[in-house]
Structure prediction request, 141 residues.
Amino acid sequence: MSVHNVICAICSERYRMTDQILAGSCGHVFHEECLERWRVESRTCPICRSDDTVYLQLYLDFEEPPPSQNQSQGQSGSADSGIESVESGTEYSGIMREYENLLYETGVYREEIEYLNERIETLMLRNSQLKAKLEMSSDSD
Ligand SMILES: [Zn+2]
Ligand SMILES: [Zn+2]
Prediction:
């Protein structure tokens, strides 16, 4: 049988491919609806109590076979409310790539900020030295 034993800590249910799942920046993962219910009571993570957790949508790729789709089938009219995006594999890797890119960019910007901060300090120091000189020369004038 299947080995998907990853459960949501809030409802203790196993995740299924169709579930809306959120991953927190603290590393904990929950059903979107469970978390929403929880967040009515408390803004902290149900497991680690982290209170500045940022949640991202998570697309898990289970090995369950996708629902068979006949291409010859026409629009089924009644059920087109966005449930057909089960092929989340490409979407997931796209998001993963974007995530890594942003992580990299963040690092670059952090370094840049550090560099600029140093630069500002140097310039401010130089500025105050010049100002002192100015004041001195205007005094002796
Ligand atoms: Zn749940
Ligand atoms: Zn947590």
Remarks:
- Residues 24, 26, 28, 45, 47-48, 50 surround zinc ion (ligand 2) (CB under 6 Å).
- The two ends are 93 Å apart (CA to CA).
- DSSP finds two helices and three strands in the chain.
